[in-house]
Design goal:
It contains no helices and eleven strands. It is an all-beta fold and 123 residues long. The strands form two sheets. Strands 2, 4, 5, 6, 9, 10 and 11 form a seven-stranded mixed β-sheet that branches.
Length: 123
Amino acid sequence: QVKLVESGGGSVQAGGSLRLSCTTSGYNGLFALMSWFRQAAGKEREWVSSTRSSGTTFYADSVKGRFTASRVKGELTLYLQMDSLKPEDTAMYFCAARVAGASYVDEDLYNYWGQGTQVTVSS
């Protein structure tokens, strides 16, 4: 059974940093895409960033320049370094993986999801 597990969430003040991790178990191979999504209370889940197996990474405009996603080539671990955090970054952050394909924003295309890790940024 494939399992994605996020960790690293917590509470920080505005301007602070957090580093999220997503580890994978039960999967033999490489994911074409590993991504981060987030969902704030009362809002729909939104795409944050995606990293292809090649290492190419894409970001939502709201986090560009502040967040850095990375994955070690050939491994199934995904990271998200979040700097200059803002209160509007408060959300549950989810890791998702797609076995094949290039499109990355549509959450319906993903094969596997983690349970999420909470990030809370206070002003």
